[in-house]
Amino acid sequence: MKARFRASHRPLVSVHRGLWSRSPENSCSAIQAAATWDVVEVDVRLDGKGRAYMMHDQSLLRTTGLDANSDGVDPFTLSGLKLLHGAGGVDAYETSEPVPWLSNGFAALDGTDAIFDLDVKRAEDLQAVARDVAGLGETHRATLKIRVSNPGDVAALKDLEAAHGVMVMAKVQLDGSDALDILRALKTADVATVEVTFSDLDLLREGCAIGGDSLRLSVLTLDDVSNGDLSDKAALQNPASVWGRLIDAGAGLIMTDQPQALSNWMRGVRVENIRG
To answer: What is the pTM of this model?
Structure first.
């Protein structure tokens, strides 16, 4: 798994919550549509019996119309729900798609080379989800993420990998020299990928230089959680000013809600000519 992140000579493309522009987010059809890219990011929670399923919000309301807590929901209730189209909300119509269990999500990846970036929404659920991934025999095509801000967190990441054989990404707020030291520790610990948020592009560049080819830095250009003005909306107007600047800084993976536009733009340029 780690070799897949390290070996690519171009930035990998991660599709946020599947391709939800024409399907419900975190749905099997959104996953299938996104599986032509490298990575499919989905959100994971646990039902009342500890079974992993795909859902972003703490409430089921936006995506299913049911005003109930997502964590610990009764599995019978969950199995009867249908997802609302796209990003959901009051104006979205109900589709025929059920809320997928983690096993359904992996089935949607079958026949492709895509891998899952599993964003487990509660830290206390990480061990259970890692056990589920291992139990399904899917450690070769899934990663988990854990927030890292100190050496103890690095050790916890390695313990999680060792316990279940699932690759674990780090999540780091890149905000100064201490964060750069965390990147050095992650590299030493043989972590392959770290998702970073940042406000200073020069700091991202320095972090990518530290990581080199063995620790790839992943960035987000999502409109609601982008780094400053480096958003999908801005990239659609001027790709070079957003995606080009991130690639020039050394980003090894870009998570986006606009994977087709990003791929089309990258095909039209040579990555080695972008990077300084």
So the answer is: 0.96
Domains and CATH numbers, the chain: 12-123+130-144 (3.20.20.190), 148-267 (3.20.20.190)
Q: Tell me the pLDDT tens digit for each residue of 187-201.
A: 999 999 999 999 999
Report the distance separating Cα 165 and Cα 183, nearest Å. 22
Confidence (pLDDT) at 226 = 72
Residues 6+ apart with CB under 8 A from 192: 1, 2, 5, 6, 167, 169, 214, 215, 216
The secondary structure of 90-143 as a DSSP string is TTPPEEEEEPPBHHHHHHHHTTS--EEEEEESSGGGHHHHHHHHHHTT-GGGEE
Are residues 27 and 43 in contact, defined by beta-carbon separation less than 8 angstroms? no
Which has the closest alpha carbon to 28: 38, 36, 17?
A: 17
For residues 64 and 77, is the Cβ–Cβ distance under 8 A? no
**Neighbouring residues of 223: CB distance < 8 A, sequence distance ≥ 6:** 231, 232, 233, 257
Q: Is 156 left (phi over 0), alpha (psi -120 to 50) or beta?
A: alpha
Q: Are 106 and 116 in contact (CB under 8 A)?
A: yes
Which single residue is written with the structure tokens 């359904």?
104
